[in-house]
Amino acid sequence: MLLISCPNCGPRDETEFHYGGQAHVAYPENPNELNDREWAEFLFYRDNTKGAFAERWLHSTGCRQWFNMLRDTVTYEIQAVYPMGAARPDKAAPAPESGTASTAPDSTTTGTAAPSIAATSIATSTAPASATAPEGATK
Questions:
Q1: DSSP codes of every residue in 21-46
Q2: pLDDT at residue 90 in the model
Q3: Which end of the chain has less Cβ packing within 10 Å, N or C?
Q4: What is the DSSP secondary structure assignment for residue 134, as one 8-state letter?
Q5: What is the pTM of this model?
């Protein structure tokens, strides 16, 4: 689980929040002048960044306020939490109390432990593939 530091309420469990998509997506100045392709790009096209990514979050079970978060999409490390309307902070300087991802072995978010397959019985066949494949199957 992530520990997200709400700017109003302090650190809370990630289950209290809802993801709101990419932050800093500017609304078109003249939306009525956009053609269908431009409008679709505004509505649906978003960055798919590997690394630091600015996101919007809602503290839905707490103060019910929106805020922005700079989070690494690979490690889940929260680098900064900042209010709506504020500029994106420098991604090289992580905030010390902004939150952290759990690295416990049993973590479903970022842990390194994987299901053990040591006790799993997998039958292996020494017969040629053509003898075990159903008729009409391709190799």
A1: EES--PPPS-GGG--HHHHHHHHH--
A2: 73
A3: C
A4: P
A5: 0.61
Q: What is the mean pLDDT of residues 92-100?
A: 45
- Rounded-to-integer distance, Cα 78 and Cα 97, Å: 9
Q: Indicate the DSSP class of residue 119.
A: T
Alpha carbons 122 and 81: distance in angstroms, whole number: 47
Burial class (CB in 10 A: 0-12, 13-18, 19+), 97: exposed
Tokens of 84: 């709506």
Backbone phi, then psi, for 118, in 5-degree steps? Answer: -60, -40
Q: Position 23: which residue type? A: A
C-alpha 91/C-alpha 70 separation (Å) is 7
Q: Which amino acid is at 107?
A: S
For the chain, the 3-state helix, strand and coil shares in percent, each to the nearest 5, are 15, 25, 60
Q: What is the DSSP string of 50-81?
A: SSEEEEEEE-TTTT--EEEEEEETTT--EEEE
Tens of pLDDT along 13-65?
Answer: 999 999 999 999 999 999 999 999 999 999 999 999 899 999 999 999 999 99
